[in-house]
Write a structure and sequence with these properties.
single chain; 401 residues; alpha+beta; Aminopeptidase; 2 domains; 13-stranded mixed sheet; two-stranded antiparallel sheet; disordered N terminus
């Protein structure tokens, strides 16, 4: 874990192990103190995290204790969790999880990476966090990040600081500033399309009326062909479990049919989802729906409820040989139900699929950001990339000349 140290600055920064209760007093009641804690202090951090959530009206799902603790239960043995706790006057005002991962770049150079939130899992096992955030009272977010960045900048025992799936609209203060040891951040943006259910509801229109002409025509035809249709919205945990079971079967069958392992080939991923459903269903943090036509399932949807926005997390559909456009129809019917149930938006998250473009009429930009130290490993990697591009652009020599 990152070593402990203390700096004396305008914003107090400290790292230490928690031995008694959290929080501890601070001699400067207006200063933000940031401390790092390990899994050894899990019980005390849990109490502080849950207490802070009670004082924040709109907690992002990905930094809720529900999501974070479920992730830790399944991934804390493959990453090294570090809890960053911000206190002012002895009261916890901000928290975040940092995941420390050690690996090798180019199979040679040892690299130590710090990820914000529930990220850094081995390839093929990731929960793929999007709308990644930290937990902070609004007035203390900026002081916490300033102190955290200052603390990270003072350390030499990391090589990368990585932000996965953060919203472009509020991520500027998350980015670690460049200095004489850190390069400018590398940023990759991806579109997350969504349908604005609240605006649709306020306009008095139906979902179908808000879609493009060709999409409307296609949906009318498909829905008519599939009648009678049943939209099953899980109202009990047993129902949710049953929908999830069938979703996994459908998801795996479609991906394996094209030679891919499918998300649920990872036992960790599957166990994370099962535990999240068990813990989050009563809180309405997860939603499971099943669409049937004449008693046959055409699609199962597993959605996350993030501050009254439904996120299209993972799904399973009948094969195209059985049903035409099963994803388009399933999501459209689920959107109709979500409109009636009072949700604010239906977000398809990132990914290039036709139904996202057809149904998601608005969009956010999510970003994957990496802040790297000036290391030989990254210099070698960048030079190899440049060489590869030069080889691609160079004209080929005709062997017959």
């Amino acid at each position: 874990m990152i070593d402990t140290t203390t700096q004396s600055t305008a914003t107090t920064v400290a790292t230490s192990h928690l031995r008694d209760n959290l929080p501890r007093g601070d001699s400067n009641e207006s200063a933000m103190t940031v401390s790092f804690y390990s899994m050894e202090e899990y019980t005390q951090v849990k109490a502080a995290w849950e207490d802070l959530e009670l004082r924040i009206s709109d907690v992002p799902l990905t930094c809720s204790w529900l999501w974070t603790s479920t992730w830790l239960a399944n991934y804390s043995n493959v990453v090294r969790p570090i809890f960053a706790v911000g206190t002012v006057g002895g009261t916890v005002r901000a928290l975040c999880l940092l995941s420390e991962v050690r690996g090798k770049l180019l199979g040679v150079f040892p690299i130590r990476s710090l990820y914000l939130g529930t990220a850094g899992e081995p390839h093929g096992h990731s929960v793929c966090v999007e709308y990644n955030e930290l937990l902070a009272e609004p007035d203390y977010r900026q002081p916490f990040l300033s102190a955290l960045h200052q603390l990270l900048a003072s350390r030499t025992d990391w090589d990368q600081f990585v932000l996965n799936g953060v919203n472009e609209s509020n991520n500027q203060d998350l980015i670690l500033p460049a200095d004489n040891r850190t390069k400018d951040a590398s940023i990759r943006s991806r579109e997350s399309r969504y349908f604005d259910l609240q605006a649709c509801r306020e306009s008095g229109a139906e979902v179908l009326e808000q879609l493009g002409r060709s999409t409307r025509s296609n949906l009318k035809r498909r829905v008519k062909q599939l009648q009678p249709i049943e939209v099953e919205w899980a109202e009990s945990l047993d129902q949710a479990r049953d929908i999830y079971r069938e979703l996994v079967e459908l998801h795996q069958a479609r991906w394996q049919a094209v030679g891919e392992p499918g998300a649920f080939a990872s036992p960790r991923f599957d166990q994370f989802q099962r535990q999240l459903i068990e813990q989050g269903f009563k809180q309405r943090s997860v939603v499971l729906t099943r669409i049937r036509s004449a008693g046959e399932t055409i699609g199962c949807l597993y959605l996350l409820n993030d501050r009254n926005r439904l996120l299209d997390y993972v799904s399973g559909f009948a094969s195209f040989d059985q049903v035409s456009s099963p994803g388009l129809v399933s999501h459209y019917l689920c959107m109709n139900e979500a409109l009636v149930r009072g949700y604010d938006a239906y977000d398809f998250l990132v990914g290039d699929k036709r139904h996202k473009e057809n149904l998601g009429k608005s969009s956010n930009q999510l970003q994957w950001i990496t802040c790297e130290r000036k290391r030989l490993a990254f210099t070698v990697r960048d030079q190899l990339r440049q060489l590869k591009q030069l080889v691609k652009r160079s004209p080929k020599v005709d062997q017959n000349d």
